[in-house]
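Progress note, project year one: complex with 2-phosphoglycolic acid.
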Amino acid sequence: MRYLVGNWKSNKTFDEAQAWFNEIPEAIIPTDTEVVICPPYPYLVTLANDGRRTTSLKLGVQDVSQFPYGAYTGAVAVEMVKEWADYAILGHSERRKYFHETHQEVANKVDRCIEAGLTPIVCVDEDYINQQIAAIQDEHMKKIIVAYEPLSAIGSGDPDTPKHAVQVARAIKDKAEFDVPVLYGGSVKPGNIQSFLSHQEISGALVGGASLDPTQWKDLIAAFSLA
Ligand code: PGA
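Model obtained:
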């Protein structure tokens, strides 16, 4: 299985989100690829109930609380979203940087997602791979997807080289002691995605900026049909 995951971050009005989905015909999604969009939380339920979550186009969230239901002001427990989402991006570098998430907190979120039946997409960066992977329980390694995202490549237009991304993907699999699916993320565009997908070590892409534009998104999906 391969994965194309779009992270909208804190972007788009609700009307813009609806318009985006109107542009994406389901028929273009290849059967061996999971295509996932992670919109802002407030749009999730309506998008899912409007039929935007289909067998081929999945919805995900960009974070979950490390806690269950309870007295955690402002937190969104995974139980609150599990009915409408299939995936959760966890430990994105922006969460680690601006919200000071620790490796252990991210690992706690992995636990909550797996308990609730969501597939975690755990973001890691090269400098901390060993600690970030080590924090995750061994038995969960078979249930997660890892996204390797070099900090210098996020939103910069300057992606990693496929050769180096492959080396890091191998290092992640070694550390995980399992052939965990590894996605590459960081300035992925229609013009460069093929160079990553052509390596068997890379199971897909986590895309920020290019996921916001339906035309680029369609071109990214098309690359999966070719690779
Ligand atoms: P980018 O973002 O595609 O805009 O570089 C990637 C990410 O933050 O996941």
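The longest strand covers residues 2-7.
The chain is about 35% helix and 15% strand.
No further modelling is planned for this target in the current period.
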